[in-house]
Amino acid sequence: MHILVLGAAGMVGRKLVDRLLADGHLGDRQITRITLHDVVAAAQPLDATIPVEIVTSDFADAASAAPLLAPRPQVIFHLAAIVSGEAEADFDKGYRINLDGTRHLLEAIRAVGDGYHPRLVFTSSIAVFGAPFPEKIGDEFLSTPLTSYGTQKAICELLIADYTRRGFLDGVGIRLPTICVRPGRPNKAASGFFSDIIREPLAGQEAVLPVSDDVMHWHASPRSAVGFLIHAGTMDTKAIGPRRNLSMPGLAATVGEQIAALERVTGKNVVARIRREPDPVIMGIVAGWPRNFSTDRARQLGFTTAEKTFDDIIRNHIDDELGGNFVA
Amino acid sequence: MHILVLGAAGMVGRKLVDRLLADGHLGDRQITRITLHDVVAAAQPLDATIPVEIVTSDFADAASAAPLLAPRPQVIFHLAAIVSGEAEADFDKGYRINLDGTRHLLEAIRAVGDGYHPRLVFTSSIAVFGAPFPEKIGDEFLSTPLTSYGTQKAICELLIADYTRRGFLDGVGIRLPTICVRPGRPNKAASGFFSDIIREPLAGQEAVLPVSDDVMHWHASPRSAVGFLIHAGTMDTKAIGPRRNLSMPGLAATVGEQIAALERVTGKNVVARIRREPDPVIMGIVAGWPRNFSTDRARQLGFTTAEKTFDDIIRNHIDDELGGNFVA
């Protein structure tokens, strides 16, 4: 089978591609070809035994999608997006890429016609929800995003459900928790500190914690995110019904619980590298974010996390990203 | 103040304009000018003491909105849409008018800049909800439409909330119940029979009832719909917060309760003009529709219906549309 990955140069995209190449199959079907698309060239995977094609173009360009669909990929993983902070800072760019780009893709799929009916896995976000929240956000809670990014994701969810209902494609939207521990360097995302306070101390670096220890948030590891994508790409979608967008399982943890887990896994020295420096702006942003979910539908449909506790998240990070080592 | 009505040639639009002209003011502000826009020319109101301008253009055309906004209307009533059945039959036309048209409008408002910040009242629909439902749909129930029309309305709701949050306009979306009794002739809308079984017998005509008597639905009179629009155009929006889209109050009634009310108000002869002719297609469509709501937010924000019982709805129709008379 031929798989198309949109947004392949991003962190989750890279990890997904690594997994696809390592597995060699998706579900019970052998992968014969993978196309990696992004606005910057995705890295050519080393030692790939499957033909991998790298395509670079602007996802927001109405003409970008058709050539990608010409070979009729059976599964499309759509991870292309600009992030929350950038969509808020640049209103036009956010709508152009996160909304118009997706709509062009859907229209291009529909335009192929002739029985083409690919599985489309869309990475949505818990940013489709906006405060005030119940203690746990359930599967029937409304989407009232408080960011333009969340608005764009919520709109794409509606479009994918309608295009699926009309028979143009077979869509599944998965709302990823915040990915933790996110590898790489600290960035300017307001949510960055949830990963920084784990990743940086493990690397012997200081990390800044801008919120209080009682802030709760909803996390999943990169390993879980890839697992959700694979499952969404292979599951029997008949069982989903018309509500095609699902909040993914995760772990609710307070910052204090994150830090306690870090201490259990690594010791006091590592934890001492976290510097508390309250930032009222970030505290204000984070106050509007989802904290906890009940994800019964996703669990019933077979989505599972790769971790049971936050300790597991830290251990998986040490194994997957640090070769089993950290700076004690 | 200057008021712009989009979709002014439709039934609700005409009734809104009649009310605005009769009142001469909106809230505590005198109306100095009204612009009526539609794809077909709205009728020039007779005896209007306020200047009324009629503009005809295609709402889906990106160039349509700017000229309408040039005189900077302070309140815009946006009722322009193609209806549910047509949006389902013609996928492209539905998205072009109901989604792209609204987006062009929002962008054109934003493009005016220079402190322009109009109140935008958007007529959404209970079609944003899709089965399965709880017994009553509450203010925090998710939007999972089962029609392209409902999808387009739900997307416009999200856009209006985001454009409001970003400070480009002051939007309020109101989800109208099914309007009953809808004046005019029977049409092909699947929901038409809810009005047909009242309006046609009152006019001495036979009406076909295609569903069973226990089918429950959510109704409001044309008088209530106009009242909702006026309130949305005048209310203090600070009290709403970021959740700018509200399910409007209405009356839940079964078809059997509608018929019993008709008999109470008019007698057995009128009711005898209803012919039961079950239609499995219409029964299937109606089974996916919302039946009942709790509309606490809208009520707390001052939205009220013009009727307490279905008997009131019938009496209002006889008064407003039939000059107080019916065929006994």
Automatic annotation (TrEMBL), chains A, B:
Keyword annotations from UniProtKB, A to Z: Carbohydrate metabolism, NADP
Gene3D superfamilies in the cross-refs: NAD(P)-binding Rossmann-like Domain (3.40.50.720), UDP-galactose 4-epimerase, domain 1 (3.90.25.10)
The NAD-dependent epimerase/dehydratase domain, residue ranges: 3-209
SUPFAM superfamilies recorded: NAD(P)-binding Rossmann-fold domains
GO MF annotation: an example: oxidoreductase activity
InterPro entries: DenD, Epimerase_deHydtase, NAD(P)-bd_dom_sf
Matching Pfam families: Epimerase
NCBIfam families: ErythonDh
Designated name of the protein: Nucleoside-diphosphate-sugar epimerase
Natural source organism: Rhodopseudomonas pseudopalustris
